Amino acid sequence: MEAKDRLIVALDVDTRDEAMAIVRDVGERCGLFKVGMQLHNSAGFAVTEEIMSMGYPVFLDLKFHDIPNTVGKAASVVSRRGVNMFTVHGAGGGEMLRRAVQGAREAQGAEAEGGPLVLAITVLTSISQGVLNDEVGLPGSVEENVVRFARLAQSAGVQGVVASPQEIGPIRSVCGDDFVIVTPGVRPDWAATNDQARVMTPAEAMEAGASYLVVGRPITAAPDRAEAARRIVEEMAEGLARRKK
Ligand SMILES: O=c1ccn([C@@H]2O[C@H](COP(=O)(O)O)[C@@H](O)[C@H]2O)c(=O)[nH]1
């Protein structure tokens, strides 16, 4: 897969029109678009369907976290709609994760191949070591917690995780090369960090072994979005080339 196909652009905007403007600007320079809770809750599923109808794969990032039955049914609904990836919280526990996978598979039919990638959120990339221990109340290092969630997700049949690029190495050593690692918290040197706490550059994240990078504001808030996306893909390609050596 080329670097461009591994770039997911986060459409964190309020309206369908704003989202479509970004899709027009960078559609040729990325692999997928991510629809999250901001856009989905204001524009509904219609915007995801419109993006998919234009031929772009969609990562629906609604971060399901509820009792197993509810998450399983929600997983089934979004899978039937044809999204390519969706998220559930690892903190929901093993049974919730298993039901999410089951819901996604059932939606495809027992015989069908494929279906969406189910991704488990590990520790949000905005969470620092201090916040994890003192506010969230989880003991141990960020890395230990991320790896624990990744191991739990994999044992529940989940195909991949969302984690910071800083934890790619430890996840790969425990979960192997085929496990999908999607990393937000990606910031080129020329972009602001914003509320992300655990960041790496696009080149560093690709070299470390990320499957996909999620980038929002460095592209969507840039004066020239297409140029920002082009620069990020170029940096990703450099990192990918270093990984292959
Ligand atoms: O741990 C996580 C999980 C999801 N995200 C999402 O990724 C994008 C990042 O956007 P930026 O503007 O590049 O910061 C955003 O949609 C988050 O909801 C994350 O950042 N961290």
Automatic annotation (TrEMBL):
Binding of substrate, residues: 12, 34, 61-70, 125, 187, 196, 216-217
Listed GO biological process terms: 'de novo' pyrimidine nucleobase biosynthetic process; 'de novo' UMP biosynthetic process
A GO CC annotation given for this chain: cytosol
List of catalytic residues: D61 (for ompdecase activity), K63 (proton donor), K63 (for ompdecase activity), D66 (for ompdecase activity)
Pathway listed: Pyrimidine metabolism; UMP biosynthesis via de novo pathway; UMP from orotate: step 2/2
Domain Orotidine 5'-phosphate decarboxylase positions: 6-232
Gene3D superfamilies membership: Aldolase class I
Oxidoreductase as UniProt keyword: no
Keywords: Decarboxylase, Lyase, Pyrimidine biosynthesis
Enzyme Commission (EC) number: 4.1.1.23
Keyword Lyase: yes
Catalytic activity: orotidine 5'-phosphate + H(+) = UMP + CO2
Superkingdom: Bacteria
Enzyme class: lyase
A Pfam short name: OMPdecase
GO MF: orotidine-5'-phosphate decarboxylase activity
SMART domains xrefs: OMPdecase
Xref: InterPro entries: Aldolase_TIM, OMPdecase, OMPdecase_AS, OMPdecase_bac, OMPdeCOase_dom, RibuloseP-bd_barrel
Stored NCBIfam families: PRK00230.1, pyrF
Subunit architecture: Homodimer.
Family to which the UniProt record says this protein belongs: Belongs to the OMP decarboxylase family. Type 1 subfamily.
Function as written in the Swiss-Prot or TrEMBL entry: Catalyzes the decarboxylation of orotidine 5'-monophosphate (OMP) to uridine 5'-monophosphate (UMP).
Protein name, UniProt field: Orotidine 5'-phosphate decarboxylase
